[in-house]
Amino acid sequence: MARLRRHAPLELSRERLVMLARRTVVTPLGPMRLVATPVALVEATFTQDAPGAAEPSGVLDQAERELRSYFGGELRRFSTPLSFAGTDFQRAVWTALTRIPFGGRISYGTLAERIGSPRAVRAVGTANGKNRLAIFVPCHRVVASNGALAGYAGGVEKKRRVRSRR
């Protein structure tokens, strides 16, 4: 059974602590760990953890409902509030990812151009790989310049399966 840590604090600054709620949910691609502050989802990653007791959280409830709808073929755009923790460059990449339409795909090069850094293709790939909000921030919609599936933190097979959902 998964360990359940209820509202473990995360230090965002020296002045304040934010309480986090965690939940592991079952998806067609395997279990996903969801972590949220009281106001936003901060992590949605594939895990080996088994689902445990659901921690109370409106954000986690919304994220779980939306994941079920997404994998059920009913949802094309998420509305769960998200919070990105990363560098300015990483946040620019992740924000650009959220603008890729459902069923769309772009290359790492095109993504680099969209954020105004056309020569930063490798850095875009690295930022893409550090996305902690899988599915909600659709890094699975980014492909190599030749259209091939390349790299995915959850594994290329998961990327192939989620891409085939169009």
CATH class of the largest domain: Mainly Alpha
Order of helices and strands: EEEEEHHEHHEH
Fourth-tier CATH superfamily name of the largest domain: Winged helix-like DNA-binding domain superfamily/Winged helix DNA-binding domain
Write down the overall mean pLDDT: 82
CATH architecture descriptor name of the largest domain: Orthogonal Bundle
Radius of gyration: 16 Å
What is the count of structural domains? 2
Terminal CA distance = 34 Å
Q: Hey, roughly how much beta strand do the residues contain?
A: 15-25%
SS class? alpha+beta
Low-confidence stretches: 1-11
Helical content band: 25-40%
Strand line-up in the sheet with most strands: 3-4-5
CATH topology of the largest domain: Arc Repressor Mutant, subunit A
Number of helices: 5
Largest sheet: 3 strands, antiparallel
**Number of beta-strand segments:** 7
Shape: globular
Q: What structural keywords apply?
A:
166 residues; Double Stranded RNA Binding Domain; Arc Repressor Mutant, subunit A; three-stranded antiparallel sheet; 30% helix; 18% strand
Question: How would you describe this protein?
Answer:
A three-stranded antiparallel beta sheet has the order 3-4-5, with helices on one face. Strands 1-2 form a two-stranded antiparallel ribbon. Strands 6-7 form a two-stranded parallel sheet. The relative contact order is 0.14. It has two domains: 9-71, Double Stranded RNA Binding Domain (2-Layer Sandwich), CATH 3.30.160; 88-163, Winged helix-like DNA-binding domain superfamily/Winged helix DNA-binding domain (Arc Repressor Mutant, subunit A). The chain has helices spanning 58-71, 88-98, 108-114, 121-129, 156-163, and strands at residues 9-11, 17-19, 21-27, 30-36, 41-46, 106-107, 142-143. The longest helix has 14 residues, at 58-71. The N and C termini lie far apart (34 Å). β3 (21-27) and β4 (30-36) form a beta hairpin. α3 (108-114) crosses α4 (121-129). It is of the alpha+beta class.
